[in-house]
Write a structure and sequence with these properties.
Layout: E1 7-13, H1 20-28, E2 35-41, H2 48-56, E3 64-66, H3 73-81, E4 88-93, E5 97-98, H4 102-112, E6 118-128, E7 134-137, H5 157-162, E8 173-175, H6 176-182, H7 193-201, E9 205-217, H8 233-252, H9 256-275, H10 279-296
Parallel strand pairs: 1-2, 1-4, 2-3, 6-9
Antiparallel strand pairs: 4-8, 5-9, 6-7, 6-8
Helix pairs in contact: 7-8, 8-9, 8-10, 9-10
Length: 298
Amino acid sequence: MRNSPLVTVICLCYNHANFVIEALESVLNQTYANVELLIADDFSTDNSVKVIENWLKQHPEIPLIVNKKNQGNTKTFNKCLKLAKGEYIIDLAADDVLKLDCIANQLKGFKETSHKNVGFIYGNAELISEEGSFINDYFKTDTNRKRIQSQPTGDIYIGLLNGNNNLCSISSLVKREVFETLNGYDENLAYEDYDFWIRAARIYNFDYIDEILIQKRVLPDSMYTLLTKKNNKRTRRFNFSTYLILNKAFILNRTKEEFTAMLKRIHYEMTIAYKTRDFRLLMKYIFLELKVRLKTKK
């Protein structure tokens, strides 16, 4: 790794007028200096664009992409990725806030890792309310803000399949090479991280640094708060995306152990489908489970 590689932060905004300036300032205030900031607004219906444009009067060198219609995170991010010049990439939501030494710590993690072929460095996050009040840490910590349980590192593919390896994607610094190898995010999905982790883990190792790297804002209408809502269109699209991801993983799997691990996640998703009354999705999972079980008997 070069001494001062360029890091690109792609900040995606959708109706985050109340928070976006704090997110942008957190990028510019990093203790690590060699940072490129790209901003994209995904057709916000509030005054996000006006707020960003006013802020950009003091930073005219920073580009802003404004979608003419809502395209979703995956498509918008991939559009920005084509413009990024950095050797490393951060995907930042406009309602989240980077800690001052976030990038410095992430790069240190890449430099000091004991694993070979590392594509991701990630750490812990501090969850905050809409008003910015502390809620808790993403991974449970002790009085020194260090993780209570050790975090799996290296080859974590099986742990991602069975759900034992819980990553904190919002705190990730990713080599640009990973995005290029995987052709960015899958634009057919409602969310990007789980699919991207699985595809990356088939090729790259992961490492964890035990630092609070980012503040994650928990909003009432965030995608993850909709996970178990009944008869909700966004919930169904989110959960169907997980089904598509597991079908892709079925193709990536190589061993009985991997297919066995996949069964645990399928059973969890079947429970979610039942709780949300998505019985069509539940039937799809039943057929997928049968396919996976056949692979475990060979």
